[in-house]
Amino acid sequence: MRTAKIDIVYVVIGWILTIFSVVMLYRQGVIRSFFHQDDVIELAVVADWQGWKTVGHLNNEHLNIIFWPLLRAEWLWFGTTYPAYLLMNIVLHVIVLSLMFSITYRLTKSFVWASVPVWGMVINSSWFTVVWWITGQMFFLATIFALLSYWVILKIIERPKSKVLVPVLYILSILPGLSWGIGLTWPIWPFLVFGFDYLKKRVNHIGYTLIAAQMTLGIIYLSLVGSNLSVHTDPKTWLSNPPAIINFMIMGLSKTVVGRWLWPGENLRASVVSILIVLVLTLIYRSRRKLLDNHILFGFVVAIGSFVTLAVPRWKFGIEHALANYYAYFPLSFLLIGVAVLLYRMKLTGIKRVLIMSIFLVHIPLSWTGFESWAKPWVVRPQQTRAYFAELNSTHPGSCLENRFIPEYVVPQNIWRIDFLWPIFKKDFDPFCNKKNEP
């Protein structure tokens, strides 16, 4: 009875902090942020819509077939009204949190433990740029479709004779790879855990569906990509340096995903210490129960597999890419579900239960400190871009603009001129007095 009362207190506090964090993410974003470099470029791409050519447009090695039509629709509706795009990001983030709760509740039948991954995910310095960055919608989409396919796998396990769920799983397993590059190998990871019967040594019906999805993704990718990848993402070089790939993966997992979550205050040394403490506690924990199950294992498999997928084409960009905080969003959602299931299976009571739940609750305000350390420098350029967009948007017919290069605080390379951005503003006149582009 005492445990139940304590749980109620923690659940109430946890969800109040969760709702507060979601509201503050939006409010702070509206006040402090605006379109970032990639957002500006992508708005220009969808403003100059060229049908299927735009849908198949590559971002380095990433296919964003689902993202481009969504961004096009938003641009048609919202124009350059940043708060509307930000609201869409908040909605997508809430969908991710809802799916995490739903999946964990299905696995634990516990409202308390189903809430834990939500508290761990609602705000974190590991990924905050995903919410304020309109480009983050491709990360949200990949995560949502992957979580949905996981949810369908759980339904198939419950109802193995269902014929409707199999084609649904096939479609949902393809969509993460059409949203963002990290999803290109998505079907592999649930296949390793749920698609192969290791006792009977045979592929089950979930496995055959995932194999078909992975083959379909490969065909789509190869047919659309062709020879369009840049020199930095040439597939011939992807596996040419295994040590660099492994280092990229280890750095990304230990510092970006786990390290920043365990110590959101952006002190990497403290993160390393926190990781070691967690490992020691895990090793010394003894239980007569067999704690690990497929769903706990799956969280770790997805986290590792995600960074393998990122590392193979991206190690040439440098190790700092492994520390890009937005990479944490996709794997962290699955890792936290696995951790919540593990904690549930440990049957914690008394002070141990209180301590664990306190860690997740304290993590929310602590994450805001890490968030702030990232936000201060990150919003400088978007704030400058806000003023620049306001200046361009105030241009009237009869004005005479010199077609200069876009300022470096908007796009830090002298590649595009103002006429590249002009369609974004939906003006029906040409303001350029001289379109002669001199090198």
From TrEMBL:
Alphabetically ordered keywords of this record: Membrane, Transmembrane, Transmembrane helix
Parts of the chain that traverse the membrane: 7-26, 84-104, 111-133, 139-157, 164-186, 206-224, 244-262, 268-285, 297-315, 327-346
Protein's name according to its UniProt entry: Glycosyltransferase RgtA/B/C/D-like domain-containing protein
Organism: Candidatus Collierbacteria bacterium CG_4_9_14_3_um_filter_43_16
Source species taxonomy: Bacteria, Candidatus Collieribacteriota
